[in-house]
TrEMBL record:
Name of the protein this chain belongs to: Phosphopantothenoylcysteine synthetase/decarboxylase
Entry GO CC: phosphopantothenoylcysteine decarboxylase complex
Pfam families the UniProt entry points to: Flavoprotein (PF02441)
Highest taxon above the source species: Bacteria
InterPro entries named among the record's database cross-references: Flavin_trans-like, Flavoprotein
GO biological process: coenzyme A biosynthetic process
Upper classification of the organism: Bacteria, Bacillati, Actinomycetota, Actinomycetes, Propionibacteriales
Amino acid sequence: MALAAWADAILIAPCTANTLSSVAHGRCDNLLTATVTCAELPVVLVPNMNSRMWSNPAVHRCVETVRSDGHIVVDMEDSLAYEFGTRETHLDLAMAGPEVVVDHVRRAVTSRRVSAS
């Protein structure tokens, strides 16, 4: 697949639990997951989901699987969340910030270039 060949890396941000599961199980049910399955280049996944979903054991099995396949998963970060119903603020998880994501992509691309030389 040509889409998986021309780039230096693939970045999936935000990465839903559904996409994470598809990548982990090699499902090619859409263009994105088909491209990732064909890719021979760094894949960086940046999850963004409800903290209950993120803490689910099935989601963590998918994270372990994609990491063992050589993909990079950027962990979610602590963040303040506003609860509209109660109007309270509490600590929750959120997608990693842009600086963190760019750093992971930069390291993945640099590492690939060094190993290809």
